[in-house]
C-alpha cells in the first residue's frame, strides 16, 4: 500500500509525523506493509520549487493508493498573489485528483463532553454528524478576477455548479446516509443564489431515488443556528464547498476542539486524500503543542476508505479512545486534572495502545 505523505506547513509536519508513527504500529500489529513517499505542497513547495503544487507532487499522488496531508499556509506566504498562495496548491491537488466529496465527521468522544462549547444537557448522548462537503466546485473554482474602476478596484468570485457535479455528491451522501440514521439535510442559499437553486432542484430529484432516506432542505444561515441550537436533528449534512468549509469548523467546536476532526476527500476511484479539518496553526507551530488526533483519525479513515481495512481503522479509533480514558490530553482539550502531553507523546501513546 503506497501512501503519498504531504506534511505541508506549520503544524502539518508535526501532526503527520505522529499519524505515521500510528500507521507503523498498525503495520506491525496486523502484518501490513505501508510504503511512504514524501511530497511537497504549499509553502514548503514554494520555498524549494517556487510553486505551491509542483508537478512531481501530482505524479507521486497519482502513483499512490492514498494521500496523507497535514495542512498548508502561513503568514510567510500570505501576501503572494492568489494563484501562488499555499492554499492554491491544496485546491489544485483536490481538483487534480478529482476528489469531489469531502467527508467531515463530527463526533463527540464521551471523554471530551466537557470540552464541548455546548452545555452537557444539550449534548445528551453526544452528537454524531457527517458533513458531506462538495469539494471541487462552487465559488472556490469559478471565474475570479480584479479590475481597476474609478475610485478604486473591483474584485469578483463566481459560484458555479453543474447538474452533474451536484448529482454525484448527492448520490454519495444518500448512499452514506443509508449506512447511518437515514437522514440528509441539504444546506444551501437557494433564496438568493442561482447556483443554490440548481443545487436544491438536483438534490431533491436525486433524493426521490432514495425513498428510505429522509431529505430536509435548509438555508445555510438557519443551519448555522440549528447546529448550535439542536445538533441532534442532523445526521448527514450535504452542502456546497463554501458552506461546508464553514459549517464543518462550526461542527468541530461542538466536539470539543478542531484538533479532533478528521476528513476524507474521495472521488470516483479508490484513491483518497486524508487530512485534518484544521489548518497549519502558525500560532502553535514548532512547539510540540498541536493535537495530532485529527490527523491520526484521518489515517484511520484512510485505512477504512482506501484500503478497506475496517478492523485496523477501528483499532486506531479505539486506541485514541483508550488514551483519552487514561486521562492524557493535549492542551487544546485540557480539562482540570488531565495529564497534559505534547504532540509527540500523544502520538506515541496512541501507537502503544494499539
Ligand atoms: P487553523 O485551523 O490553522 O487554526 C485555528 C485555531 O485552532 C488556532 O488557534 C490553532 O492554534 C487552533 N488549532 C488548529 N489545529 C489545532 C490542533 N491540531 N491542535 C491544537 N490547536 C489547533 O486556522 P487559521 O488560523 O485560520 O489558519 C492558519 C493557516 O492555515 C492559514 O494559512 C490558512 O489558510 C491555513 N489553513 C489550511 C487548511 C488546510 O491545509 N487544510 C485548513 C484551514 C486553514
Ligand atoms: C479547509 C481549508 C481550505 C478550504 C483552505 C485552506 C483552502 O479551510 O480544508 O477547510 O477552504 O477548503
Ligand atoms: Mn476550512
From TrEMBL:
Chain ranges of the Isopropylmalate dehydrogenase-like domain: 2-350
Protein's name in the database: 3-isopropylmalate dehydrogenase
Top class in the EC scheme: oxidoreductase
Primary role: Catalyzes the oxidation of 3-carboxy-2-hydroxy-4-methylpentanoate (3-isopropylmalate) to 3-carboxy-4-methyl-2-oxopentanoate. The product decarboxylates to 4-methyl-2 oxopentanoate.
GO molecular function: 3-isopropylmalate dehydrogenase activity; magnesium ion binding; NAD binding
Family that this chain belongs to: Belongs to the isocitrate and isopropylmalate dehydrogenases family. LeuB type 1 subfamily.
InterPro entries linked: IsoCit/isopropylmalate_DH_CS (IPR019818), IsoPropMal-DH-like_dom (IPR024084), Isopropylmalate_DH (IPR004429)
